[in-house]
Amino acid sequence: MQKVLTVCPYCGCGCGLYLHVENGRITGVSPSRSHPVNTGSLCVKGWNSYEFVQHPERLRYPMIREKGILRRATWQEALQKVAEGINRVKAAYGAHSIGVLSSAKCTNEENYLMMKFARGVIGTNNVDHCARLCHSSTVGGLARAFGSGAMTNSISEIKEARVLFVIGSNTMEQHPMIAMHMLDAVRKGTTLVVADPRQTQIARLAHLHLRHRCGTDVALLLGIMNVIVTEGLVDKEFVRRRTENFDAFESLLDKYPPSVAESITGVRAADIRKAARIYASEKRSMLFYSMGITQHITGTDNVRACADLVMLTGHIGLPMTGLNPLRGQNNVQGACDMGALPEFYSGYQPVKDPKARRKFQRAWRRKLPERPGLTLMEMMDGGVRAMYIMGENPAISDPDATHVRDALKKLDFLVVQDIFQTETTEYADVILPAASFAEKDGTFTNTERRVQLLRKAVDPPGEAKADWQIICELSELMGYPMHYRGSYEIMEEIALLTPSYGGILHHRLEEGFGIQWPCPNSNHPGTPYLHRKKFARGLGSFITVDYIPPAELPDEKYPFLLTTGRIYFHYHTGTMTRRTSVIEREEPLCFVEINREDAKRLGIRDSFPVRVKSRRGEIEVSARITDRVPEGTVFIPFHFREAVCNILTNPALDPIAKIPEFKVCAVALEAV
């Protein structure tokens, strides 16, 4: 038996694991004992991360749709069809009529090539990926406050912290190995504060649970900062030396004493004061957040308020401190780093910056478009006539899913590149079979900016190919040759053009467990925590934010507030987990969590069917009566194709990050 060290393909933890290979097949998995993230442990998804690789439903050969029916095709035939379809739409409507979706499931090298293909071959900046739906507000919010939109500290520091403040993150279910470090810290005496409308597993273990109303995060954070200022807990020396715009920000806090914050959030003023004192009084305090903060029309403001809080207390630029957004997918950090975004090249170099544009034009020998492209949501609102989608399933993952499916139907041409047929491939004119994480080389970047090597363990099934190879073959067919002997050569190009990855090369990643960017040159060891002497932008900027209610609140017709999220046993649209027998056995059906008092009033019984309606559609799910949600709030996971909860969700957008408000919409319930 051969044991191949690689990286788990699920969440942003980036756990190290070994794939066990016998006779060309994967027979099992074991964790890396010395890996700094998982230290010999794996969650249920990690332990079962190989089964879907060998599932009989894997895509094995290209397919073309003719007269509404898919048929098998050769690679030459399929790629020729893709090239002709893209060129036809481009000739008729221009390059900006074509949209490209890259993938947080693919490697850094593949995301880099996909954005290079969009800009250098098609000639459009219309390239985006699922970070638009989870952490685009992090990129925008932290870039303005700090100059860098990434997790500032390292996972290994958690065990030595004295205070952990977790807001809007169901960490034990969504980032289990990070939660393991948190629980180790709590056992050693660390104080855990959790802010979450639901009583999640980690909230049950918290020393203080702030159960605020959905969509009131800014008011809660401003209330905490009001206490820090009025009680003299501000790190004045840090604010004076390292920040700007403090005076304007401080005057805003007068509007949010704990009593006002209580009226908005529902959290007792005494608990707001207690949280402020706990967090501000201990220097080794780490703040963590996830999509409970970002997926709002005020997502960018929520992130800015978190940044204001860490600067106010000086909890940044040192070990065991910092502002730490927990990235959702295995390579969503890397896909952002690689420029799979409409406004940035790799390394967050703006496409509007003439200097950056000239650099990429010289390297790629192509004239590049100047104006930023469309975001994912803008593409789905009729902004494009054709799309090339790699490793994404927007038919389930995007809000107001009925509208998204209508948009996919209306496209003149759609190509989907994936490892399985999905709800999105139902609308595809061409389907291209890709290799999974176990069948190719490359790198992933985890939530703490750790760039790790992915190693090929087995061959892809049938005629499937690695995504980067498909992109290269298509590009050559369209008149722009991309020749690389392996993914390591793509990383060499990335390092030349991307300052933060300047010293990250495959041969340096062979030993150990990766390098954390920024790593500017081949002698640099990597950076475990950011902003040590100064912020990436120079001085940290306090940004004035104000409380704005969610776009859609409950009313007489739709009296409940719906919030959505992931659960422990499944992942995103279920493409991989729902083809894994152990995981599917544990949670085979969609459900809605309902507070027991609400259920009693409506005559809803546990495990019986419930119809959930919003202004955009309705679904039927099984009732789960619980105290995890407060009265007036319900929760539905978004993994299930049989009950697509994103049929219900509101597509209202954050005006800056263009992220949808998944976390709040109004619904009605009735027993079926």
Q: What is the count of β-strands?
A: 28
- What summary fits the major beta sheet? 7 strands, mixed
What is the SS-derived class? alpha/beta
Radius of gyration: 24 Å
How far is the N terminus from the C terminus?
A: 53 Å
Q: Tell me what portion of residues adopts beta-strand conformation.
A: 15-25%
Fold and architecture overview:
This protein has about 675 residues and is α/β, with parallel strands linked by helices. The protein folds into 3 domains: about 65-135 and about 330-435 and about 490-505, Rossmann fold; about 150-325, Dimethylsulfoxide Reductase, domain 2; about 560-670, Barwin-like endoglucanases, CATH 2.40.40.20. The chain contains 25 helices and 28 strands. The strands form 7 sheets. Strands 5-4-16-15-14-6-7 form a 7-stranded mixed beta sheet, with helices on both faces. Helix 3 crosses helix 22 (about 485-495) and helix 9 (about 215-230) packs across helix 13. The chain is globular, with a radius of gyration of 24 Å.
